[in-house]
Give the backbone structure.
Amino acid sequence: MNIVSIVRSVPDAESRIDLDGDVVTASGAHVLDGMDEYGVEQALRWRESGVATGDLVVAAVGPARTEDALRSALAMGADRARWCKTDAELDALSVAAILERIVREEEADVVFVGGKQADWDSAALGPALAERLGWPVVDWTVSITVEGGEVRAVHDVDGGTEQIATPVPVVVTTQQGLAEPRYPTLPNVMKARRKEIRVDDVDVDVGPVRVVSRRLDVKERRRAMIDGDLATQARAVAAFLREVNP
Amino acid sequence: MTGSIVVVVDAPDNVVSRGSLQALHVAHAWASARHMDVVAIAVAREADAVRPYATTVHAVPDDTAGHDAWVATITHVATSTGAAGVVATSSRFAQAVAPRIAVRLGAAYLEDVTLLEADADVVRAERPAQLQRVRESLETTASIVVATVRPGSVPLAQPLGIAGEIVVTTGVADAFGTRVRRVPTGPGRDARTVSLDDAAIVVTGGRGVGSQQGFVATVEPLAAALGAAVGSTRAVVDAGWRPYDEQIGQTGASVAPDVYVALGVSGAVQHLSGMRGSRNVVAVDVDPDAPIFRHCDVGIVADLHDFVPALLAELDATDP
């Protein structure tokens, strides 16, 4: 069974986000997206337990900084990487179109991708990629096993969780709750530097949606701190609740 | 009229959900700008409740289940009614099926929008990015646009003063087949009494609640008193005190209730990204330096285990 894990380079969550014109800037580093990381970890565990036999391939679409995210996944233990290097601003549907070709070339049976990446706040990549491939999708997965060509998973749905089963090939979107991602060891970080990253030069279609502008979304809050004893504080909160929710 | 704006509606207990009313609000304005019909899709047992809000209500079998079946059904209705738009509230369900419908229709996808305005040719929208810290303005001239609407960001639809015609739509999902099946022995659990998506008030407990029992003693009674849904932070879910599906934040649900009450929540950026749209925020924490106090309207520095009983007593005393 072959696995492709999709990764994306996003600003570290602790970074301060700012705008330079319409370009987003971050005070800190760009890192491998936290939700994508769960998919890389799950794939590694399947390979270590013998469920997955082929190379574990990580794939990404993105600008120059994406190499760091790919190296992080390789340092966790992935074997090699595929990278469509582009500065084009692409939405999830456009990225899915590029990844479809890579997934087919790699003859993958399972594709892991994070449920929602932190830069574009989009949950669309997994479902859009599955649709292009003609595969089913298991979204918001919190645990997963595979046996006899069938995946069994527990995943979040509106208002609860459910257990489902589906044949491979399948796209699985990952999140916290799956196997906790490992930290790369220093030797593996060194080894990752020599692993193959194949850079594909492809024509990208930016799709029909144009970003016209960006602005920082700053919420003005009253920030009224209520001093006094508990009764005073409780009265103030009760009064506020009546005021805003009559 | 030619063409439609298709809107996916749910109406549990014959009341259209808040999220669906928001999607309908977007659909009404969009259809009006294009001189098109509002075409709703609902399961048959909920279709009657939707009639005041749509020209036509496509009633699909009550047992329509699974993403494959819904993608086939919604795509079929969109194609057969000449849709220029497909709208739904951004539930987990819609976030999974909407991109697939967009791919299948060759449509543009506007995800989790906080605003959508259409004129004769162009659809303009705003949506969040960067863990909700940036707002993007988008536009598209695509002939079909699929959109999901972020809960709590637009008004609720008003009835159109009509009783839409019910069209029974069957056989679509069967013809497509369903590859994903539910395993009935699974560890699924009952839906909440108040769903996070629909809640006007959300009471969220963080690490400061201290334990699973702490939730039962503080968060749950306050939520019950306010008719609120219960939310949790990642730390709480990681600790195993509460289920994953209650989690609010980057890895969990996004909510935008009228009132958000944060109990023992420090206010990490990942958590804030899931509640930034809340109209009013009350924060209670022992640490006066907790970041949550920079993102609240009313802040209380106190031990929540002392404060919640005091607030419950005050609410009891003032209840009419």
Chain A touches chain B through 81 residues (CB under 8 Å). The CA atoms of residues 67 and 83 of chain A lie 8 Å apart. The first helix of chain A runs from residue 34 to 48.
